[in-house]
Design a protein that fits this description.
This protein is mainly alpha-helical. It contains 11 helices and 4 strands. 61% of the residues lie in helices and 6% in strands. β3 and β4 form a beta hairpin.
Length: 285
């Protein structure tokens, strides 16, 4: 389960400039100077937040629809179909985790891994169903109630979304934290212990972080064109790398990746996460 990210209030005026570095188009590294500006409360920032809230709502709606199909197959004992629907059902969730994880109670119910459980904590959510499907597929009927609980929790999440606080600052920091966690934690394969569908999760994380960046890009382009160049290139390279591991409508099993390919993925995630850490400074206000 990724680190919990909670939206925070928008920052005030920055008094200092921050400096980051990232890969340039020619493969060398260049410094990216981030000027101290106040953009977080202007019309473009407000519009970006509104569009992100709509995006999050759409992604959660898709998650619920796909999870309904997944849970139906799971409860009917259609193991092959349920396995095929498992990763796609999580894609929308993985793309909006910075917002979804503002609901810590729901996050702990729908996305906890077995290793994350505290003393006496009841294990529910996707990963409980994942274990049943890949470890004890003949007993999925006994786990049916957890499919119903998952859908109920996702419904609660959707109902709360319109009132959750979202700011430019929380969007920017959430995108960075999401890729940081993917590069340092998820890249080990810890998230999808039983299904090894980790590349689906990476796609969701990258899509979600890229969406935040695209919404804030007009502000960034005006104030730090060098950062735009770095992030445009980094996201393009990262998406191309993920596309190279595609198979059919999905991805290869994470176990098929060599150590070198896993390291390449981690490096690509870090290459975007590092300069992305400057996004909040550019758009603060």
């Amino acid at each position: 389960m990724p680190a919990v990210l909670r939206p925070v209030a928008a920052c005030g005026l920055l008094a200092v400039a921050l400096t980051g570095c990232g890969p340039a188009v020619d493969g060398t590294r260049r410094d990216v100077t981030v000027p101290a500006v106040s953009a977080g409360t202007g019309p473009r920032a407000v519009r970006a937040v509104e569009r992100y809230r709509a995006y999050a709502g759409d992604r959660i709606d898709r998650t619920i629809a796909r999870t309904e199909e997944f849970v139906a197959a799971f409860k009917e004992g259609q193991v092959r179909r349920a396995r095929a629907l498992y990763a796609p059902s999580r894609l929308g969730w993985e793309s909006v985790e910075p917002v979804a994880e503002a609901f810590a109670d729901i996050d702990s119910r729908v996305d906890a891994r077995e290793a994350d459980l505290g003393q006496g904590q009841r294990w529910t959510g996707w990963h409980r169903l994942e274990k049943a499907l890949w470890r004890t597929p003949g007993r999925t009927g006994r786990e049916a109630e957890y499919g119903d609980l998952l859908l109920a929790d996702l419904g609660t999440l959707r109902a709360r979304l319109p009132s959750v606080e979202i700011t430019v600052d929380s969007m920017a920091n959430g995108a960075r934290e999401l890729l940081d966690e993917a590069a340092s934690g998820k890249v080990t394969g810890e998230e999808e212990t039983f299904s090894h569908t980790d590349l689906w999760d990476f796609k969701g994380n990258v899509d979600g972080a890229a969406k935040v960046y695209r919404l804030l890009r007009p502000i960034v382009r005006e104030r730090s064109p060098g950062l735009v160049t770095t992030l445009d290139t980094g996201f393009a390279d990262l998406k191309a790398l993920l596309a190279g591991h595609a198979r059919g409508h999905g991805f290869v099993s994470y176990t098929e990746l060599s150590r070198g390919q896993v390291r390449e993925l981690s490096d690509a995630l870090n290459a975007v996460a590092e300069p992305l850490s400057n996004l909040a400074a550019v758009t603060a206000g």
